[in-house]
Each structure stands twice: as structure tokens, then as C-alpha cells.
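Deliverable D5.2: sample structural annotation.
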Amino acid sequence: MSLSAEIIAVGTEILLGEITNTDAVDVAQALSELGINAYYQTVVGDNPDRLRKVLEIAKNRADIIITTGGLGPTFDDLTKNVAAEVFGRELQLHKPSLERIEEYFKRLGRKMTDNNRRQAYLPEGCTVLPNDWGTAPGCAIEGDGKILIMLPGPPRECKPMVKYRMVPYLEKLSDSHLVSHGIHIYGMGESEVESRISSFAEKMENPTLAPYAKDGEVLLRVTGKATTEEEADAITHPVIEKVCEILGDVVYGVDVPSLHSAAFEILKEKKLTLSTAESCTGGLCAKLITDIPGSSEVFRGGVCAYTNEIKEKLLGIPGELIEKYGVVSDEVARALSASACEKFGTDAGIGVTGYADGRGDERNPGGTIYVAVTLNGKTVSHKVYQPRGRKVARERAAQEAFNLLRREAEKI
């Protein structure tokens, strides 16, 4: 049976743009992995009349309603009260939840104010979803052939509540299991990816294959459905193998967190070390690799050589090379990566130089960046043009650097 869902975010601060609604992202992704179609997302302020209307509309057009926010202790936290009215339920004190809240404040060494008791009042007959990450419990109501799940709003609470409370609750509704795997692609646009796999993907019903465009990348999500998790997982593997065969080395991994983590794992597996010499990226490559736990097994160090003087003095880049080709050039990028290897004594080095914003020179327009990778004495390079601002240009340059690095390391 195909179920539909609506996600309702409650909070005037979201409507005003004061905070980003990351809760909806977490809920939507979880519903997708469960095979539940989220057809609508709504944001409503802390107003009981408008919230009531939104809930009534959702009740008429969705099988499952997920709300986030409005479960706190203050006067504008109205979700439970209004939802209880819409579903014809009374609010009752749930003593175990009250005890959990009291214990929470005791652990913090703070006095619990009376308004916190409001969080322990829940709709009669609901299933309580304990909140181990905050004070407000979530809950689920089933009535009139519909399901309403209420989750707390703070992302640090909502995200784990989605994973450990909402998902297990909804899994019980189905006698089938879904398993998804992500095929990560860099170096090929979404339209070309879709064109190459279309004849294969269009014939598929189970598993399904869906493309998603990300920042500079493409994600293909393969989802299998079966009576057991093991069976659902098994039917995805032939599809993954076929897609990887069709697309080749633009696939940088399956179920990997990021391009730089994929490169890191290859270097770690092959016991290769890395260093960086960066100009316009401002140390972003070094930052990304050191975000990975255990990065010291691979990464030895880096230099953020922003000026010509530093490039010459610290990294030994010849002044005549800079003068002849320009500081933003393929030749200087290659010299930077080779110098990184030499100065840090590493197997691999990344070199980056460019203009990350609108300012360029007579040779290169703004947004032009050169990236080079040296590995075991061999240097490869690539030109990046990304005129969409400093942040995007730097991120694209770092992606390109790690893509070059992982492709070269895979050859060893």
C-alpha cells in the first residue's frame, strides 16, 4: 500500500527566515527511505487558528501528518493543544514523561519552572515517543484512518527523534522493508548521467533508481523493496554494479560521505601520505581532510601561501616562473603541488592557485582556478572556471583537487 505524508513545520521564526527549516529535510529524507510519499510541506506560524486550518487540510489529503515544533513549555507552543482538538482528544498528564522532565532538570542542577509541566500533557490514547535529547516528548495519534506524529522543533532533538522514534514507529505499518544505497558521481552533469542510464533505469520498478543533483555532484539513489531487509539489500547490488559499469570512473564511491573522504580512504588503504599548498582556497583542502577522524594517518601538513612572497620563500616557487606565466596559471599550480611533496616529504601533494571572485587578469577572468596533484613524482592538473562567487569557487576547486587525487591514487 502506498502511503502519502505531509510535513508541517510550526514556528513563526521559520516564516520570518530567522532559522532554516532543517527539520523538514530530516523528516523528508526519512520518509523517502521508508517508501512514503511526502506530497506536501507546510510552514505555519504560532497561531492556533491558522495551525488548526493547516492540520485540517493535511488530514483531508494525507495518510500521515508529521509536525515539528510547538511542543515546548512557552505560551506559543500550541501544536499539541490544537492537534488534540482536531483529532478530538483531551490532553492528559503523562506521569512518566513528567518524571523524565524532572530528572532532566535535576541532572542539570537547575530548578524546573511550572510551565515545563505543560510538556508532559499529551493527547489521550497517544503513543508516547520519549525524547532522550531534550525535555519535550513526541507522540503519535492514530484516528479517523490517519496518523499524526508530533516531534520537537530544535534540530538537535528532532534529528535523533526522527531516526530513533519516528522511523521505527512507521516501519511497523508495513510488512515490507526498503534498503537504499547512494552512488556518488563527480565529473558528469545530471543530464548526461540520466541520458546514459535512461534506457536501463526506465525499465526498473524494483529496485528504483532516482537521480539527485548536489553541489557539483550527482547522487543516484538505488532503493530496493522486499519482505526482509536482506532481500531488499540483495536486489540493489546488481543495479549498483551495472550503473558503475555504465558510468565508469566518474563514480567515486557508494554510500560514502564525501569526495574528500573517498580520496582519504584510498590514500589510507594504499599507505600514501598527503600535503597541500593552497592559495585562493585559503586552506580549504587541508581543512576538509582534517575534518576526517584519523586524518593524521594520511595528512602531514599544508601551507596557505596567499601571496607571491610566501610562495617563493616558503615553498620555493621560482619568481621567474610566476613572472613568466602569472601566479594564476597551470605551471604555478603544478609547482605548488610538487613543492608540497618535497617540503613535507609526502607521496602526494595538492596545489591550488586562482581567482575565487570577479577579479581576474589579462590571462584569466575571475573565477578561474588551477588545481594540480602530484603523486609519486607525476603531476596532473586541471583548470576550473566557477564565476559564482568566492565560496562556490573555493568549494569547487577543493572538489576538483580531491577528485584528481582519488583518480590518480586508484591507478596505483
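Annotation notes: The domain at 177-254 is CATH 3.30.70.2860 (Alpha-Beta Plaits). DSSP finds 14 helices and 17 strands in the chain.
The annotation will be released with the project's public dataset once the embargo ends.
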